[in-house]
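hey so u asked for the seq, here:
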Amino acid sequence: MISIKVKIIKDAVHGDIECSELEMKIIDSCRFQRLRNIGQLGLSDLVYPSANHTRYEHSLGVMHLAGKISHSLGLNNKDTRLIRIAGLLHDIGHLPFSHTLESVLSPNTDHLHETNAINIIDNDFSELFKKHDIDKTAVKDMIIGKGKYGKILSSGVDIDKLDYLTRDSYFTGVAYGVIDLSRLMHIATIENGIFAFQEKGLRTIESVILARFMMFSAVYDYTTKRTAERMLFRALDAMDRRSLNITKLLKIDEVDFLSTLRQQDGYTKDIIDRIDKRQIFKTARIITKDDLSTEHVTRCLEIKDNLNQLKRIENIIANKLDIPEGYIILDIMDYPKGIEHINIKKDNGDIVKLRDISALSRSLMRQRWQDWRVSFLCPKEYRQIVKENAKNLFLKYL
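ran it, structure tokens below
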């Protein structure tokens, strides 16, 4: 195994994380240090008070797992170094409040932070990479899941997910994310450029899918957290776009941005004040998949990330019920994903998809789809009138 130790960082999840000279130069840069104040779990601390961990320690954890899996795969020192650096930098392009703000600035896509990361590497680390003979293009490709080893960092079961599931479980106190990381490292394989896991470790892979399913239920889709983030999303959307310049946002952290938010006027200020006081909107009505026709479900998934369409329906319902605009929020869940890009190497050498050989994984995805819903969120004083009227109005104007 490559000898890299220059400094040891003590991590709550992985223990000792060894860092090389190059890695320490990246870690000590202003760009990377900014991640100390970019939260990993959004507004989850409204539910789980200890969920204050950040993109900083998560990135260190992904780098650590990159080294572990590279060693298990028998990769050479050069490739190991590239994968570790890609793991270290994969989240460096996250904005304050990460995916929530990303959804405002870049609707219908989930990759703005990856584009930001590539730009940062080009602008801030080119000289450092050149000095240390690092293939910049290879690192950038891995961050977007491409290239020879991209799927190690971005696929159905990858080192990014393995770290955040384990880390999120630890800091929320929810035990569902416990994963046998050591076993996963040893069953990973690359065959003809395809990243896969050996069939003998099928139950270990299934345990990851189960952990992810449970963490979505208990943490990522928890009602209070999800509602607060929808409120934040609407507050951010109502801001003057000049306050949401990506170049400027990449130079500040969530402490800076919260200060800006608290100085806003009107709707944005009221929503931020409510979040600060934990006066979170209530769920007035839920519509499940069984309440809707196939056409209605399809339409819901089409408009889920279309802010203009959602606001149109929200405002119609608000006006019909004599409620101020912005105080009814629609929350439409996404179509569940999770096992589409997981490869299993069978004992005979064939590469197959996990979904084709794992009844448990298919069952968990069906259950997530069964849990799909549309929620109507509003302040508690409007809860009853929304409960009584929202469904019919929603279907009429959908």
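The first helix runs from residue 21 to 27. The chain has two domains: 7-222, 281-335+372-398.
lmk if thats what u needed
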